[in-house]
Design a protein that fits this description.
Shape: elongated
Number of strands: 0
Subcellular location: Endomembrane system
Keywords: Membrane, Transmembrane, Transmembrane helix
Order of helices and strands: HHHHHHHH
Radius of gyration: 25 Å
InterPro entries: Ccc1_fam (IPR008217)
Distance between the termini: 66 Å
Main location: membrane
Number of helices: 8
Pfam family, one: VIT1
Structural class: mainly alpha
Largest sheet: none
Length: 233
């Protein structure tokens, strides 16, 4: 039986928080590690410096992504909590004004003035704070992000993405390594774009085009730097 409790379970919006962090992490892992390796490969005639730079970049990048995602989402959560605390105070000090604000919100959404006021009154009687958090502040269970979840998803995804170009470095010929990296990275990005689009229900060709264009730009610029400062190591 379909109810409001299970109807939204299959909607893509429920995946937005962890999917954003995972796609960002994997994309950054693939592109940044490949770009770093291409830059070093363009200036190196041996495999060891490329492996060293890649492993160092992989470890530092994964930790940086996880820490950055945690700090970013935590800041968002702190802001939401501060607004909720402020709303609690306002509901105690000016309940009538808050009721009118809620009614105006519903009126702007299309309800008649009398209906909007009645809805605001009934929701306030049931749970005034929940109504204001949801409809005035725009905070709900779907939009709320989990710092730990986002950090783990981002760091793990970066590691998985970064390991892919590392495998290419370990097994591809040193001569022409940058070309092997570029070709394989484009394939990895196409796969990532396809998976992300399918999981999020978005347009697959558009996702692939977007991710490969920016990946190509990053790798070309990195290779250019390697050739310009081509000190053999």
């Amino acid at each position: 039986m379909i109810t409001i409790d299970n109807y939204l379970d299959n909607h893509y919006i429920h995946r937005s928080n962890w999917l954003r962090a995972a796609v960002l992490g994997a994309n950054d892992g693939i592109i940044s590690i490949s770009s770093l390796a291409i830059g070093v490969a363009a200036a190196s005639s041996t495999r060891e410096p490329i492996i060293l730079a890649t492993v160092a970049g992989l470890v530092a990048g994964a930790l940086s992504m996880a820490a950055g995602e945690y700090v970013s989402v935590s800041s968002q959560t702190d802001t939401e909590k501060a607004d909720i605390e402020r709303e609690i105070i306002e509901l105690k000090e000016m309940p009538e004004e808050e009721l009118q604000i809620l009614a105006q919100i519903y009126e702007k959404r299309g309800l008649k003035k009398e209906t909007a006021l009645q809805v605001a009154i009934e929701l306030t009687e049931k749970d005034a704070l929940a109504a204001h958090i949801r409809d005035e502040l725009g905070i709900n269970e779907i939009s709320q992000a989990n710092p730990i979840q986002a950090a783990l998803a981002s760091g793990a995804a970066f590691t998985v993405g970064g390991v892919l170009p590392l495998l290419v470095i370990l097994f591809a010929p040193v001569k022409g390594m940058e070309y092997w990296l570029y070709g394989s990275t484009i394939i990895f990005l196409i796969i990532l774009g396809t998976m992300a689009a399918k999981t999020g229900g978005s347009n697959i060709p558009k996702a692939i085009l977007r991710i490969t264009i920016w990946g190509t730009i990053a790798m070309v610029l990195s290779a250019l730097v390697g050739y310009i400062f081509g000190v053999k190591v």
